[in-house]
Amino acid sequence: MIGMISAILGIINFFYVRIINLKLDEKQNEYFFEGPWDEQKASQIFFKLLINNEQYNNFNFYKDGFRTTDKYTGEDGKCESTKFIPEEYQCKKGSYYAHGIYGFYHVMLNGKVSIIGLAYTKPAVNFECHVCRPLFSIVQYSQEKTGWSVTSFDPAVFYSGSWGSPMSELDVVEIGYGSFAIREQSGFFQAGYTEDYISFISRIKDKYVEIFSIMKTVTNGLKPDGEPKNCTLDVNIIPIGTSYYEIKTSSDGSDECPKVREETYFFNGKRYVSKGAHASSIFDIPDKSDNSNTDIDEPEETSDDQNVDNSEDSQDEQIEITK
């Protein structure tokens, strides 16, 4: 009798495992396409991931001071852009959100090519104010034997832009042998005074955080000949080390930079810090890279150059897709 029960339980367990594996295979195939790299096919998968994740409330703009209450009433597919910036979005009827693809970037990770995709999400209705910033999500594709497969997807990672559009300049750079970072360049302008910042956002353990940020350029008025008074900092990634490379900053040597200094930064396990005894920048302001605190409580309390959303609810829905 006991032997018969054990046999029945063994059969049930066998079919249960088979069903689970079949479901995993179906999910894997859903995020895989055959053949060489195809940006259109990759975008379709990315849009599917974004739309599927709306149900988990990842794209919660309440934290940024906006209420997402109006649904999109048009047809599925391309939806109208903002009035100010001509951007193309994908919308789903009855959804609160609109999604757009920012770009795809090839990086070498652990000696193999990976492709990182960036996409932005905004409320589909009434999101065109000066401080309205889209939420960015990140997807990673890896090459399989016969095609490309999604290996990770992180929704609602950081805010960037204004006027409901991704106006900051973003790209993806290799920042270590097996590490990459989103490089964000953003700025502030008021009455002839301009500040430009450069920041790096990278995944540390199980979440994305800002690991380096510094003021890159200051423009303050005009010279007698009408040219702007600029002081610019060069920021370069130096391939020294393994997991994370070094970052070197130096002045452009112009007369508007009174403190000509070179600084080298290394990764301390949390973020980049200066090797020198003094970590202040050439602009005589505190260098934020010296602050080892990576927790940023609320997005609305941060500036455009320090806008990583580290809230647990946005990171809990990270999807790791493995075979």
Task: Lay out the secondary structure.
Layout: H1 2-30, E1 32-34, H2 39-52, E2 77-79, E3 89-91, E4 97-109, E5 112-123, E6 135-143, E7 147-159, E8 169-176, E9 179-190, E10 193-204, E11 207-222, E12 228-238, E13 246-251, E14 262-267, E15 272-274, H3 312-315, E16 319-320
Q: How would you explain this protein's 3D organization?
A:
- With 323 residues, the protein is mainly beta.
- It has one domain (31-320).
- 15% of the residues lie in helices and 41% in strands.
- It has 3 helices and 16 strands.
- The chain has helices spanning 2-30, 39-52, 312-315, and strands at 32-34, 77-79, 89-91, 97-109, 112-123, 135-143, 147-159, 169-176, 179-190, 193-204, 207-222, 228-238, 246-251, 262-267, 272-274, 319-320.
- The strands form 2 sheets. Strands 1, 2, 3, 4, 5, 6, 7 and 16 form an 8-stranded antiparallel sheet that branches. An 8-stranded antiparallel sheet has the order 8-9-10-11-12-13-14-15, with no helix packed on it.
- A hairpin with a 2-residue loop joins strand 10 (193-204) and strand 11.
- The two termini are 39 Å apart.
